[in-house]
Amino acid sequence: MWVGIEDADSIKTIRAAYEAGITTIDTAEVYSEGYSERIVAEALSDVRDRVEYATKVFANHLKHDQVIEACERSLTNLKTDYIDLYQIHWPSGAFNSEIVPIEETMGALTLLKEQGKIRAIGVSNFSRVQLAEASKYGRIDSLQPPYSLFWRQIEKDAMPYCVENNISILAYSPLAQGLLTGKFESGHKFDPADNRAKNKLFQGENFERAQQALEKLRPIADRHNCTLAQLALAWLIAQPQTNAIAGARYPKQATANALAAEVKLSTAELTEIDAIGRIVTDHFDDSPIMWNW
Q1: CATH number of 7-178+227-263: 3.40.50.2300, 3.90.1010.10, 1.10.260.40, 3.20.20.100?
Q2: pLDDT at residue 291, as a whole number
Q3: If residue 20 lies in a helix (H) or strand (E), which one and from where to where?
Q4: Rounded distance between C-alpha atoms, residue 268 and residue 282, angstroms
Q5: Measured distance CA(288)–CA(291) in Å, rounded
Q6: Pair 154, 147: CB distance under 8 Å
Q7: What is the rounded CA–CA span in Å between residue 211 and residue 207?
Q8: Would you say 148 and 180 are in contact if contact means Cβ atoms under 8 Å apart?
Q9: Of 258, 91, 283, whose CA–CA distance to 203 is shortest?
């Protein structure tokens, strides 16, 4: 899904994030078929008791026995005997997977929790309706949706339910896959193997609107002596129940991401940034998928 990644850089970056105070690391079994989980273990095994591992079971492993087996694989990959947060990566049926009743999947997750192999249950890419249905069969502690200043469908769908039921929102792509860093200029072309090549935000008028919005955000970032990325993260974690899973390729990026927690935005500034984001988001339909797959 990404190109030009070196294991040594990934390990140093995860370690730099930890040293900067970031203690939750999110991964998934489907990321390079467990390879990502193994890299996380390589980076953090010696401080396992001071970090939280969040990983996910993919849509093709949602039958009861498949969930149990997938969890065991992830435990092995992560070199641990418990997973802090275990999430359903995509709802049953996604990517042409077999339809499995959520009650069956939740039964397996509840069993794993009772056994102490997982400590909390989460879901990812679920709508409000799907989230409410899953909640009938056990406590859901978190929802992981795509959410950033430039991608905000969750605000109209699942966020009110999460606030009402004290469900944490773990926002993925909080920098819109790097767009909110401001480093991608008009005409930028991605390697076809890079999943950003199919991201709607990087295409046509959406990309041009994003550039307009970024220009309006720059003076606010300058006022706070922070980067555009730090400003976007600070805005996001100021939203109800919301945490940001910020990706990083190099140690300096992880360290910079952590500093976003120190950017304090006033109510007026949050409103101003909200309005700037809508330059981009007002033109999208209600599709929750950020990519043209």
Answers
A1: 3.20.20.100
A2: 83
A3: none
A4: 20
A5: 9
A6: yes
A7: 6
A8: yes
A9: 283
- Rounded CA-CA distance 217/272 in Å is 9
21 exposed, middle or buried (CB, 10 Å; 0-12, 13-18, 19+)?
A: exposed
Euclidean distance between CA atoms 165 and 147, whole angstroms: 19
- Residue 2's pLDDT is 67
User: 161 an active-site residue?
Assistant: no
pTM of the model: 0.94
What pLDDT is attached to residue 60?
A: 97
Q: Where are the strands (E) in the chain, listed by range?
A: 24-26, 52-57, 85-88, 121-124, 142-144, 168-171, 242-244
Dmax (CA) of the chain = 54
Interior CA angle at 214 toward 24 and 229, to 5°? 20
Structure tokens belonging to residue 196: 């950003």
| List 31, 53, 147, 172, catalytic entry | 31
Enumerate the domain spans of the chain: 7-178+227-263
pLDDT beneath 70: ranges in the chain: 1-2
- The confidence score (pLDDT) of residue 196 equals 85
